[in-house]
Structure to design on (406 residues):
């Protein structure tokens, strides 16, 4: 077969692979989000004199376009390039988080300094650290030489150094870096994002096939660290303690207000909802288009609407796991697994927050909640996964073609 026609054939065949499914599902989830961001925000926008189109919708639409462009740019570059650039990407991410703390660069809103101003847009670096941490840990945990299998009972100091001390030190140092980055993010303050990063990191640790003894040590360190972060802000302990009493009159109008209004809205939706545009929760909730957009979705479309949305996100997560299992590259496999876990954890926590299982901790639904940084970071994560899938697919088809010619 001629070389040019071969590449054309490969390109056409690659269009119908796992990266196309991921793109279609991600686009569907993004469109779903745009519809309900408009729905949840138009009434308040009219009341504020901004017109019928909410500012959140305009911003999300712009970031949706930027996200899709970013996806294609990342996906078209071979994953081998991203493997070599992982540490540089991670360092840039850490620097951007540090820049938030510099007066004049970091922008403060509602008592939180989480954003960097880029022209008319505000970017939240902590959201992109979710992707950076996944790439970083996937790179670190994938460096496992096949010629040096694990030895449980080393015979000498050299074997102990090569097979126990160095690998464990690498793992401990990597996780310490994750905890330090999470601490920086928590001090913005943004405990929700820090918690998602730590939970995703724990999951990647488990998948990296470390020893149970080391895993328990790290889990203990993580629990103590999270407890320390929670205890540093008295209002967090108060919110946790009073969450079970949120329906009490003295609590429901203060600390428990958003959760109570969200629960009431979700409960009134029933099976098919009260109808799009007819919900009450979006008029009551301060974060109607962001952390508590699920209240409007559940109230206006009912259980069927919520199940459809969660089905799309679950499908994305499931596809990443299934495709990741077929990857020969450890870095690519862990990147797909990590992205799947990130989406699943963030979605689950948001649902539990909206239905009152957990207190409000400020975690958006991937693709759906308004927030340009969150949307762009999620699409970038999917872009890295698509890059890995495309490279794997093309490599497999080249091997198959060569074998067929033989």
């Amino acid at each position: 077969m001629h070389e040019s026609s071969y590449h054309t054939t490969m390109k056409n065949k690659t269009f119908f692979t796992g990266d196309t499914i991921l793109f279609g599902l991600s686009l569907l989830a993004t469109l779903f989000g745009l519809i309900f961001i408009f729905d949840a925000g138009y009434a308040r926008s009219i009341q504020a004199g901004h017109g019928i189109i909410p500012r959140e919708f305009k911003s999300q639409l712009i970031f949706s376009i930027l996200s899709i462009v970013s996806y294609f740019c990342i996906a078209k570059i071979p994953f081998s390039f991203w493997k070599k650039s992982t540490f540089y990407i991670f360092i840039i991410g850490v620097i951007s988080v540090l820049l938030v703390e510099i007066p004049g660069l970091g922008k403060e809103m509602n008592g939180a300094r989480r954003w960097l101003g880029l022209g008319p847009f505000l970017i939240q670096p902590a959201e992109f650290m979710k992707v950076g941490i996944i790439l970083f840990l996937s790179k670190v945990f994938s460096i496992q030489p096949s010629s040096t299998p694990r030895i449980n009972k080393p015979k000498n100091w050299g074997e102990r150094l090569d097979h126990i001390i160095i690998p464990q030190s690498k793992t401990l140092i990597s996780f310490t870096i994750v905890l330090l980055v999470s601490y920086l993010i928590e001090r913005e303050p943004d405990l929700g994002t820090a918690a998602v990063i730590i939970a995703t990191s724990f999951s990647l640790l488990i998948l990296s096939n470390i020893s149970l003894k080391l895993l328990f040590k790290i889990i203990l360190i993580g629990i103590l660290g999270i407890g320390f972060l929670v205890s540093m802000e008295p209002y967090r302990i108060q919110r946790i303690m009073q969450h079970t009493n949120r329906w009490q009159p003295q609590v429901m109008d203060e600390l428990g207000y958003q959760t109570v209004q969200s629960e009431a809205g979700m409960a009134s939706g029933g099976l098919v909802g009260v109808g799009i545009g007819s919900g009450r929760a979006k008029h009551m909730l301060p974060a109607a288009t962001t952390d508590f957009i699920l209240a409007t979705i559940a109230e206006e479309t009912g259980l069927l609407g919520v199940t459809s949305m969660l089905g799309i996100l679950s499908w994305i997560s499931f596809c990443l796991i299934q495709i990741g299992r077929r990857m020969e590259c450890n870095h690519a496999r862990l990147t797909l697994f990590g992205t799947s876990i990130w989406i699943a954890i963030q979605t689950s926590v948001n649902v539990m927050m909206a239905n009152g299982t957990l207190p409000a901790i400020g975690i958006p639904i991937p693709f759906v909640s308004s927030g340009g940084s969150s949307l762009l970071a999620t699409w970038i994560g999917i872009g890295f996964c698509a890059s890995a899938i495309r490279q794997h697919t093309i490599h497999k088809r080249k091997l198959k073609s060569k074998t067929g010619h033989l």
